[in-house]
Amino acid sequence: MRIALLSYRSKPHCGGQGVYVRHLSRELALLGHDVEIFSGQPYPDLDQSAIDAGVRLTKVPSLDLYGEPEPFRTPRPSEYRDWIDLIEVGQMWTAAFGEPLTFSLRLARLMEKRRGDFDVVHDNQSLGYGLLRLPKMGFPLVATIHHPITRDRALAIKAAKGWRKITAARWHSFLAMQGRVARRIPVLLTVSRSSEVDTRKAFNIPVGRLETIPLGVDTELYRPPAGASSGTGDDGRVPGRIVCVASADAPLKGVSYLLEAIAKVAAERPVELTLVSKLDPAGPSARLIEQLSIGSSVRVVNGLDDEELAGLLASAQIAVVPSLYEGFSLPAVEAMSCGTPLIATRAGAIPEVVGEGEDAGAVLVPPRDSGAIAQEVLRLLDDEEARTALGAAARKRVEENYSWAAVAAKTVAAYQRAIDQNAAATAEEDQ
After folding, report:
1. Are 140 and 417 in contact (CB under 8 A)?
2. By Cβ atoms counted within 10 A, which residue in 43, 79, 109, 287 is the most buried?
3. What pLDDT score does 48 carry?
4. Average of per-residue pLDDT across 110-123
5. Rounded distance, CA 78 to CA 302, Å?
6. Can you say how many angstroms the Cα of residue 87 is from the centroid of all Cα atoms in its chain?
7. How far apart are the C-alpha atoms of 388 and 341, rounded to whole Å?
8. What mean pLDDT comes out for the span 380-402?
9. Does residue 387 or residue 284 have the better pLDDT?
10. Distance from C-alpha of 372 to C-alpha of 376, rounded to nearest angstrom
11. Distance of CA 361 to CAs 192, 273, 281, Å?
């Protein structure tokens, strides 16, 4: 198949959509399919194996109004290229997030010139109005919805103070568009049963329209250190090291509750939290680190590539996912793949992903409960046997349930359904 894979932004590392695009494109190409990625900024980093297999990247540049080092900047007059740029700036000036819409409009314009180049188009949660032009051009269309951003909106509004509640609601105003577009896309994919239920409710999508295809992990890269994988204990792991991967400093990720837990743990024993995230120096997490006086116990890093992230997770005695909601949670699966004992919240799809009962790959705690996180951290740090057993169960669960090759094969089947539906609709119109 000739596949156009779309992503309005593809954060290269520790961002779910960017990880999805990188790995899915590689596995599709290794299955023999022709894959071209269309992405706005930030652009994905393609694996060399994907490039060798023929995956191509077509950049769909925006004005990049939210990128570092100058987020929310006003462009110079010379930067404006067309009416879509004016929409993008106008959305920002009115406190809205316009990238899903403007990416889809730019993409539709590009595809007008590429009508004969692709057998199927796969959107990665932009769900912008421009996508609705693609079926009219003859393209079969598939979309993946990782989770409905309605959860992010509710938590952001709740966390905001005063007039900022209005801007938080306005920032997420693109959700109305996404719901309208999702209801008109023939084949919809999601990544967990929990996300399927939430997406159907949020976007009013009929039962049976969403197919669940869990995400995967590279088990050769994300693997336990030699000593841990052989069952000889915590060899290769740094005593007291705890790792948390949070793609954004947002209320949804629950980082504040982890920081409170670390303050409790640090009062009893030496501990080091490595937080993989990009924190705003004036943001809530940075302020809380200062307020709790735990700066010496917290190390913040970002921009890690896959090898560095895998090595960090494998070096930890414990990983924590403190999220208030997750549609899947790649950080949880990556930690489990490294055989790293995981503490995670009973929120969204996390219990479904990590499992429950005797073979669970994580210890589950209530969301928003820093005391429960601290209690489990202290318990696991003091119990090497429990850590070893939990890490082994986690690795086994990943090996049995999650691989990118399986994700790609199931996704190709969804593409074929979209192609068949499109052909049937075209034949009906021609009669």
Report:
1. no
2. 43
3. 87
4. 96
5. 32
6. 26
7. 8
8. 94
9. 387
10. 6
11. 17, 21, 34
The phi, psi pair for 243, rounded to 5°, reads -125, 140
| pLDDT, position 233 | 46
Locus of tokens 């049976």: 208
CA distance 291 to 259: 10
Does the structure show a pLDDT above 70 at 228?
Answer: no
Percent of the chain that is helix, strand, coil (3-state, to 5)? 45, 15, 40
**Helices and strands, number each (H, E), in the chain:** 17, 13
Q: Which domains does the chain have, with CATH numbers?
A: 2-216+404-430 (3.40.50.2000), 226-401 (3.40.50.2000)
H helices of 316-369, in order, are 330-337, 350-354
Residue type, 424: A
Q: What is the mean pLDDT of residues 181-192?
A: 95
State how beta strands 241-245 and 318-321 pair. parallel
Count of C-beta atoms within a 10 Å radius of residue 344:
29
Selection from 320, 352, 178 nearest residue 253 by Cα: 320
Would you give the distance in Å from CA 300 to the centre of its chain?
A: 19
**How confident is the model at residue 235, as a pLDDT?**
67
d(CA 416, CA 409): 11
Q: How high is the pLDDT of residue 232? A: 40
Q: Exposed/middle/buried for 77, CB within 10 Å: 0-12, 13-18, 19+?
A: exposed
Report CA Rg, the chain.
22
Instruction: Work out whether strand 56-59 and strand 342-345 pair parallel, antiparallel, or are unpaired.
Output: unpaired
